[in-house]
From TrEMBL:
The keyword Isomerase does not apply. It comes from Croceicoccus naphthovorans. Residues 5-176 form the Plasmid pRiA4b Orf3-like domain. Gene3D superfamilies: MM3350-like (3.10.290.30). This is Plasmid pRiA4b Orf3-like domain-containing protein. SUPFAM superfamilies: MM3350-like. Keywords: Plasmid. The keyword Transcription regulation does not apply.
């Protein structure tokens, strides 16, 4: 029996050309899983705080030592709950310092393909910024330096990125293999969890 999935378009705000990804996510996934999917799709390393904002509600990781009545636990909220409220576009912010805002748009809700494990990476364009590069202004400055061999900061920018990631930064190149592996690992864990639950209920 197939399950219901949502096709999501994830676009990093204020980027030109647009940095975006497309993924299929089961509607029963919680927002913590969706966070993991976005991290994998964009190539982020999950170093920083994050939250979703949908309508007048925010979802993230709650902290009992720092209570916030306006923040709901992402792990306790399913994507379906947003869809049931007719939310078709919402915001995901990663790294409250650099403030990387992602516009998440629900493109379609439909039956998934039989035998396919979800979530699933579909496609995308353009490499996401490196971690800790200083938000949009810092990324623009980094991009100018790293793509122009004559730029006075070219050597430093190139060496910094290679030191952090082990390779040169190519703005047009997505590491789709990494995205598929990371999101595929989430799908395998989810499938294993569902199988274990089914065995217990027999």
């Amino acid at each position: 029996m197939s399950e219901t999935i949502a096709r999501l378009h994830i676009a990093l705000a204020d980027t030109d050309p647009s940095i975006w990804r497309r993924v299929d996510v089961p509607v029963d996934a919680n927002l913590k899983m969706l966070h993991d999917v976005i991290q994998g799709a964009m190539g982020w390393l999950d170093y920083h705080l994050w939250e979703f904002e949908a309508g007048d509600r925010r979802y993230g990781v709650t902290d009992p030592d720092w209570p916030d009545d306006r923040l709901f636990a992402a792990k306790n909220t399913r994507l379906k709950a947003l869809l049931d409220r007719d939310v078709r576009q919402f915001l995901y912010t990663y790294d409250m310092g650099d403030s990387w805002e992602h516009i998440v748009t629900v493109e379609a809700v439909r039956d998934g393909e039989a035998g396919t494990k979800y979530p699933r990476y579909i496609e995308g364009e353009h490499r996401a910024p490196p971690e800790d590069c200083g938000g949009t202004p810092g990324f623009e400055a980094f991009l100018e330096a790293v793509t122009d061999p004559k730029h006075p900061e070219h050597k430093d920018a190139t060496e910094w990125h290679q030191g952090c990631y082990g390779k040169a930064f190519n703005p047009d190149e997505i590491d789709e293999r990494d995205a598929k592996l990371r999101i595929g690992a989430i799908a395998k864990r989810r499938a294993a969890g569902k199988a274990a639950q089914a065995r217990k209920s027999r």
